[in-house]
Amino acid sequence: MKKKLISTMMSLTMAAGLLAGCGNSAATTTETADSTASTEASEETAEATAEESTEEAAEETTEETTEAAESGDKVTLSIYTQYADDDTKVPYDYAVEQLAEAYPNVELNLIVQAQDDGQTLKTLAATGQLPDIYQASTDLINTFRESNQIMVLNDVAQSTGFLDKLYDANKDLAYAEDGNIYAFPFSGQEYVLWYYNKQLFEENGLEVPKTYDDLKNCIDTFTAAGITPLALFGQEGWNTAAAYDVIATRYAEGGIKALDDQSATITDQGYVDAAKTMEELVAAGLYQKDATTTNYDQASEMFLSGNAAMFINGQWYIEDATKGLGDNVDWMFYPAADEASYEAGKSAFSGGGSASGFAVNPDSQNPELAAEVAEFITEKYCEAKVMYRHNPLVAIDTGKEPDSEYPAMMKKLSDTLPSITSTTKFTWGLTNSTFNDGIQSETQGLVSGQFSADEFIEDMTDIMADMND
Amino acid sequence: MKKYMGNKLAILLFIAPALAIFILFDFIPIVQVFGYSFTDWNGLTMPTFTGLKNYIKLFGDKVFVTSNRNQLIFAIIITVYQMLFATVFAITISDKKMKGRKFLRVAYFIPVILSVTVVCQLWGSIFNGNGLLNKLFEAAGSDYSQNWLGDRYKAIYVISFVNAWQWMGYQFALIVAGIKSIPSDYYEAAKIDGCSNVRAHRKITIPLLAETYKFCLIISVTGGIKAFTEMNILTGGGPNKSTYTLTYMMYNAAFKKSDYGYGLAAATVMVLECMMVMLLINFIFRDKDQGKEEEKSRRKRNA
After folding, report:
1. pTM (2 decimals)?
2. What is the ipTM, given to two decimal places?
3. Which one of A188, B116, B227, B250 is separated from A270 by 20 to 30 angstroms, measured CA to CA?
4. Interstrand relation of A75-81 and A133-136 (parallel, antiparallel or unpaired)
């Protein structure tokens, strides 16, 4: 009897849970319907919804929408963006704060972006659940363009004055291959920097390497002293691709960008020489042995704690490196085969901008409002990066000043900018997904020291042959 | 019982729910996977029929060979490790005189209830460059430190070991249950005939567990063919795709390159491989006596 009673109670609890789950879904629908209310776009959306739904549901939605509009209810927009470290949290929090003042009736529902090469977003797109605003890379923009799941933002960019605020050097970043604007970029031209620990170099009587022979000398000295010469976070394919690119650009200015747009081939002498140089450096012990299974946190910790003398990362790391190492950190121009190439290569940097930024879901319940908010957030991201992250390399002219002096490394970079004549691309800016996947895994193979330069060239030749398939 | 089994409507009613779920969530998706594998599809737009192009490309892909080799290594290691240790441990704790058998029974099963992520993090910190294992070698004065997870040849063995370690307890539980179902009279009779413990298990336990072993073998081998999670967490499929499997190829093509057609061709081959392995195991473990009896009764009916 007692057992029966317990079973009945459990069954009832489960049934209640099930009903509560369904009930919740209904509540969300109502909430979403409410949220369509307080914008100009709401009437259109309500109409669109009414067409798709049953007549009864449509009437209900319209009634709720009207009621909500009158009561000035808040509109909730979902946003899918990075929120992992200070470089992503600070701009987002600042943008939300500013949004509350400029759009008091708009609330953002943050969905934290997963580091998964866009697969979450693609899955959401496949199931028709894209967020209202999402951070899109070049690859995603190209994919969603084909499926009409990304809004054309030309008019909004014009009406909000976004295009006028864009720096001339970043104008290209706003436009996709077809000449339309699909995302508001907030990052400007970015660069791969080769950081080094000045103190460790001084303590070991070493000078900043200009040539690969100098670099090999540094490797020997650091290895003998029990210091890892360069900490790489090779678990992330972009870092190994950047490690190859900083060498490739010494031999062929276009680096991996030229391979991506197929204006160069991997069998060109420059790329072959770069692969062989990398193979030699790996064999000499430039990177830690387990570089391919090391993540960013581990590698950064090695560098900041003085266990590694050098580090390769984007210029966005300047703030963290300065915080961790103070005046003991700097960046160097990439070493080259000889001094002449070193000097000549000072104007060619790895990295660059990409047509990526905040995009809008055209099937959003409030597409126009979402587009306006996306533009607003982009501006605020740029402001926060300048003011609080001391990074002037943003897409638009914000007219803001940093809250304290720029770090020495950023000043050095700013002074160098006018002389930079060519850049390449980060992997997220590459346009061909086959090449992108290939260069990340093949360079990882080179870094592991278990794949030869010849294997690299052979495999990349096959991959490049598949690029137009 | 006979009354129910003779009623076709009752049979239909009983199997309908399971059949409906199977058709909806297994059969139809598998057919769809097979269909889309002949197309060029990015997962969002309309697919374009491309015939056998994806399969031709797949069979010429170097990573396809690596993936199949890895699956084979993975399947062999986990099968041998799990079945061997599960049998030894199950037989050991089935001895009622043994002390601490309750503790061991729980201890062997604990890894099964842990999340794969937790297990991989645990073994990851043991096997990484500055991990526990290399530190132990250093402490012992040995220079045998290895790049366990970053080695293109060794990494797959390490990954297989992690999986085998975690899931051994599952097979152990199945074999313990199987041993419990064997009547103790058999062992008593064997003992009277002067049979040793080892010989009794060899002649009684293992042959009577044939059905259990068949099931264990199927889950081990198909588990090897479908392997993905451990390599995704421990090595990310690297270095340079050297720890890929067909599931990883599917994942990479579909989600990283938006090439669903190619990814689903890899998935189709994987499904076919699993089915072939199951058929092979069923054939090896077929009940020969039952087959003879069926043949006899068929002849009788025909006569």
Report:
1. 0.82
2. 0.84
3. A188
4. parallel
